[in-house]
Please model this.
Amino acid sequence: SYNGEKEFYSASTIKGPYVVCLNQEIPSSKESHASIMEKTIKISSNEDYATLRKIYGGSVFEKWLSDAGCEWINAYEKYTDITPKALTQMWIKNYSYFSSGESNSSWCASLFTSTKESFISETLTSKYTVYSKAGWFSGWGYSRTQSDGGVVLKDSNPYIVIVLSNAYGRNDLLGNLVTALDNIHSDFIN
Model:
């Protein structure tokens, strides 16, 4: 953990937990909005995410975030500040849902494979199954951000990796960081 309590602008990384929340808390949301959810996660469509937010709002997300231990996050803002620790807590909840066998869980997990701009996925998918959602932003008064979060299904030792950074556009450097983290994980399990 490094800067675990430092706040970063979430950019599109927050879309992942929001879509998981909808599938977990309102399973019927998939019936009407599967393609919108898919575009929100796979290609990080801001328009489709805004549509989901307009339909479902923030109250269901507020409860979900509280259950994840992230009650301080503003669930009513489309994009908000988060910390690496909070995004880790959200991904623990995401992975628990993905592996639960609950309604929509397998389908929802499948949305998070090979997502746009995910340096975690780009770095590790050739070796493992990776569920991830990146976020990036380059201006308009906020700090530049290039971030990613997800779970790596590494044999019988899956792990969560979270990288929130200001290294906008530097997927090469962030990919090297992910490789180093994966090597550290290997050292821990061997």
